[in-house]
Design goal:
3-stranded mixed beta sheet; 22 helices; 10 strands; about 55% helix; about 10% strand
Length: about 550
C-alpha cells in the first residue's frame, strides 16, 4: 500500500500540469484573437481608402507587382553585365589590334579593316533596337529570351574575334621580328657608315704620309747634290737637241716622288725596243729638284734621254696667267685643305679624297700646259708617277688620232664613271653644255696630239671653266673633272689593254688582265711604296726599283 505522503505529492503535480496547460491555451487564444483583429482592421482600412484614392491604390499595386518581378529577375542583371563586359573587352581588343596593325604598317592593310569591322560590329550589336531596352537604366524588366539571343550573338562575335586574332598572331609576330630586324640593320648601317668615314680618313692619312725610307732617300740624294754640284747641274750647258726633237718618243712625268718617278722611267726603258729614241721630261718642285737630278744622272738608262726641271723653271706659270694658282692662294681653299678636325674632314666621304694636299701642288695641274711647256713637239705621252710600263709603247705614236687631242682609255661601265658622277648637273651651265651619260676616261696614261691641242685652244677652254669654278660649284676639286670638260669632244678612246687601272684600291683585278696590259696604274690610296699596298700587286712595282743604288740600300728601302 502506498504511503499517504506519496499519494498527496502525485496529486499536487497533476493539478499543476493542468494549470500550466490552461494558461498556454488562453495565451494562444488571445494571440489569435489579436492577429484576427489586426487583419480585419487593415483590410477594412484598405477598403475604405480605395474608395477615396483609387488612382493611388492602382499605382501602389503596380509598384508592388514590379518590385516582386524585379526581385525575381535579379539573377539576370549580373549575367547581362557580364555579357556586356565581354563584348566591350573584345571590342577594345579588336581596336587595339587594328591600331597596332596600322602602326606596324602590315602589308595586311586588310587586317586593319578586319579588326576595325569587328570593333564596329560590337557597337552595332549593342545599338540594335531589339537589344536597346536591355541597356536602358529605367528598365526593371529583362526579357530572358532577348537576353539569351543577345548572349548568343555576342559569343558568336567573340568567337570570330578570337579566331581572327589567332590567325593574325603569326603575322604580328613576324612583323615585330621584321621591325626589330629593321631597327638592328639601321643601327648597324649607322655604325658601318661611321666606320667607313673613319676608315676613309685613316686611309687618307696613310696615303698622305711619306715613308721613312723614302724621306731618307730624298735626303741622301740631296746631300750628294750639295756635295758635288758640278756633277749634277745643267746650268750653263746647251740644251741637248734630243729634248726638242719631234721625231723621238717623248714622255711627260710630273712628280715630287723620287723613287716613283725612277720606277716609271726604269720600266719604260726596260720594255722599249729602241730606248735611245725615248725622251723623258721629268718635272718636279724646287725642293726635290736636286734629288731628282742625282737620281737620273747616276744611271745611263740604256741611252734614253732624261730632262729634269722644276716647275719654277717655266716662268709663264704664274698666278696672273694660271687660274688655279690664283685660286690656290685663297684663304678659303687653304682652310679647306688644312682643316684638321676629323668631324669636319669626314662630313662628306665623296669629297674626302679631294682634300689630299697633292691638289695644292702645281705639279698636278701642269698637264693642262703641255703645248706651252714643249712648243716644238707634236705628240707627247703623259704618265702618272704611280704607273708601271710593261711593254713597248711606241705603238701609240702610230695611232690615227682622227684630229682628236686626247687618247685615253674609257672607264665607264653601266652607270658608273659617267660625267654625272664628276660634275654638278644641277648647275644650268653644266646641264646645257654636257651629257650626263657621257663616258668618263682616266688620267694616268694619256697620249696627246699637241698640234690638235693648239688648234682646238684647249688650254683657253680649261682657263674659262676653271675661272667659272672658283667657288667649286661646277665640280669637285681635282684634275679629272676639268680634264673631262676640256677634252669633252676631243678624246679618242684607246683599247683597254693600253691602260689597266685600280691596282691601288681594287684587289679583284685578274692577273691575266694585268699581264696583257701595256701600263698598269696604282691609282687609289694603296700606293706600292706604302705599307698599305696590296701584296699581290706590289711585286709589279718593286721589280723596277733600283736596289743596287747605294742610297737605296742605305735607306733600307722596301724592307
Amino acid at each position: 500500500m502506498a504511503h499517504p505522503i506519496q499519494r498527496n505529492g502525485a496529486l499536487s503535480f497533476t493539478r499543476l500540469s493542468r494549470f500550466v496547460a490552461l494558461r498556454i491555451l488562453f495565451a494562444s487564444a488571445m494571440a489569435f484573437a489579436l492577429f484576427l483583429f489586426v487583419s480585419l482592421f487593415l483590410l477594412s482600412s484598405s477598403d475604405s481608402s480605395s474608395s477615396n484614392y483609387a488612382d493611388v491604390g492602382s499605382y501602389g499595386f503596380r509598384s508592388t507587382r514590379r518590385s516582386v518581378l524585379a526581385v525575381k529577375s535579379d539573377p539576370l542583371n549580373p549575367r547581362l553585365d557580364q555579357i556586356r563586359k565581354q563584348a566591350e573587352d573584345h571590342k577594345s581588343l579588336a581596336l587595339a589590334y587594328a591600331s597596332y596593325a596600322r602602326k606596324l604598317k602590315l602589308e595586311n592593310s586588310k587586317l586593319v579593316r578586319v579588326f576595325a569591322d569587328l570593333s564596329r560590329n560590337y557597337t552595332d550589336l549593342m545599338s540594335k533596337p531589339s537589344y536597346r531596352a536591355l541597356f536602358q537604366p529605367d528598365s526593371m524588366v529583362i526579357d530572358e529570351s532577348v537576353l539569351r539571343q543577345f548572349e548568343k550573338e555576342v559569343k558568336e562575335r567573340i568567337k570570330v574575334t578570337r579566331q581572327v586574332i589567332s590567325e593574325a598572331k603569326e603575322s604580328f609576330d613576324n612583323q615585330i621580328k621584321i621591325q626589330k630586324l629593321k631597327d638592328t640593320i639601321f643601327a648597324v648601317n649607322e655604325q658601318l657608315a661611321k666606320s667607313k668615314k673613319q676608315g676613309a680618313f685613316s686611309s687618307l692619312i696613310a696615303a698622305k704620309s711619306i715613308p721613312k725610307s723614302l724621306h731618307c732617300l730624298a735626303m741622301r740624294l740631296m746631300e750628294e747634290r750639295i756635295a758635288h754640284p758640278e756633277k749634277y747641274s745643267d746650268e750653263g750647258k746647251p740644251t741637248p737637241p734630243e729634248l726638242e726633237d719631234p721625231k723621238l718618243y717623248h714622255y711627260a712625268i710630273f712628280s715630287d716622288n723620287v723613287i716613283a718617278a725612277s720606277v716609271v722611267v726604269n720600266s719604260a726603258v726596260k720594255n722599249a725596243k729602241e730606248p735611245w729614241k725615248h725622251v723623258f721630261h721629268v718635272v718636279t718642285d724646287k725642293m726635290n729638284l736636286g734629288a731628282m737630278q742625282v737620281m737620273f744622272k747616276m744611271r745611263d738608262y740604256n741611252g734614253s734621254h732624261i730632262e729634269v726641271k722644276a716647275v719654277e723653271d717655266y716662268k709663264f706659270l704664274n698666278s696672273s696667267y694660271v687660274p688655279v694658282l690664283r685660286q690656290l692662294e685663297s684663304a678659303n681653299l687653304q682652310r679647306f685643305y688644312f682643316e684638321n678636325k676629323i668631324e669636319n674632314a669626314t662630313k662628306d666621304t665623296t669629297n674626302m679624297k679631294f682634300r689630299n694636299p697633292k691638289y695644292l701642288s702645281m705639279l698636278n695641274h701642269l698637264r693642262f700646259y703641255l703645248p706651252e711647256m714643249y712648243p716644238k713637239l707634236h705628240r707627247i705621252l703623259f704618265l702618272d708617277d704611280d704607273v708601271v710600263v710593261q711593254r713597248d709603247l711606241t705603238g701609240l705614236w702610230k695611232i690615227d688620232m682622227d684630229g682628236k687631242v686626247n687618247g685615253a682609255v674609257e672607264t665607264c661601265f653601266g652607270s658608273f664613271h659617267r660625267y654625272a658622277q664628276y660634275m654638278n648637273f644641277s648647275h644650268p651651265l653644266i646641264k646645257e653644255k654636257f651629257n650626263p651619260k657621257a663616258c668618263g676616261w682616266a688620267y694616268g696614261m694619256n697620249f696627246f696630239d699637241l698640234d690638235a691641242w693648239r688648234k682646238e685652244k684647249c688650254t683657253e677652254q680649261y682657263h674659262y671653266w676653271q675661272n667659272l669654278n672658283e667657288n667649286r660649284t661646277l665640280w669637285k676639286l681635282g684634275t679629272l673633272p676639268p680634264g673631262l670638260i676640256t677634252f669633252y669632244s676631243t678624246t679618242k678612246p684607246l683599247d683597254k689593254s693600253w691602260h689597266v687601272l685600280g691596282l691601288g684600291y681594287n684587289p679583284s683585278i685578274s692577273m691575266d688582265e694585268i699581264r696583257n696590259a701595256a701600263v698598269v696604274h696604282f691609282n687609289g690610296n694603296m700606293k706600292p711604296w706604302l705599307d698599305i699596298a696590296m701584296n699581290q700587286f706590289r711585286p709589279l712595282w718593286t721589280k723596277h726599283v733600283d736596289y743596287d743604288m747605294e742610297f737605296v740600300q742605305a735607306c733600307n728601302f722596301g724592307l
